[in-house]
Design a protein that fits this description.
The protein is an alpha+beta fold. The protein has helices at residues 3-18, 65-88, 134-147, 149-155; strands at residues 30-35, 38-43, 46-50, 94-103, 119-129. The strands form 2 sheets. The chain has a 3-stranded antiparallel sheet with strand order 1-2-3, with no helix packed on it.
Length: 169
């Protein structure tokens, strides 16, 4: 494990413990539909393209929004494993995730109001490379699943408001 990472985690944990107000952060992204189903997205100083496959009218220039949800869950699990392994002193040489989600597009296309438009089920498969004991890995997994932000957001409803502003066209 990197001593820089250990120091950063320790420093951040101490700051948030002694100054709880600094732990509260608002994240933001901005996006705009370009043409067809393609959107340009800005997140801090990063940009990405989100699109749909050609089979449903997109130009396949980037991942779909639902694929980004899968990526967010997988990468958040990986980062949370690394952070907690480092903080707990559990050896972790590698972590990877494979995330699958089942969706029935009859919900999105309003063909059946009894079908949910989003994922009906998610499956997360984590692969760990570690020399840690089974009990340490169980402790690590419990900590990750209790504290992974994206897993939490997908498992517990998040209060969400949608505000609409109409500009003259």
């Amino acid at each position: 494990m990197s001593t820089d990472l250990q120091a950063a985690i320790a420093r951040t944990t101490k700051t948030f413990d002694t100054e709880p107000a600094r732990a509260r952060v608002t994240f933001r992204c901005d996006s705009a539909l370009q043409e067809g189903f393609q959107s340009a997205v800005s997140v801090r100083h990063h940009t990405l393209t989100v699109d749909e496959p050609t089979g449903i009218g997109g130009s396949d220039q980037g991942p779909t929004p639902v694929e980004l949800v899968l990526a967010a869950l997988g990468t958040c699990q990986e980062i949370t494993y690394r952070a907690f392994a480092t903080a707990l002193g559990i050896p972790l040489q590698g972590v990877s995730a494979s995330v699958e989600g089942d969706i029935d597009f009859r919900g999105f296309f309003a063909l059946d109001d009894t079908v949910r438009p989003g994922f009906g089920a998610l499956r997360v498969n984590i692969t760990l490379t570690s020399k840690a004991s089974p009990s340490d890995l169980a402790r690590l997994t419990a900590a990750v699943n209790a504290h992974c932000p994206v897993l939490d957001m997908l498992s517990v409803p998040v209060p969400t408001t949608c505000n609409i502003r109409v500009l003259p066209g």
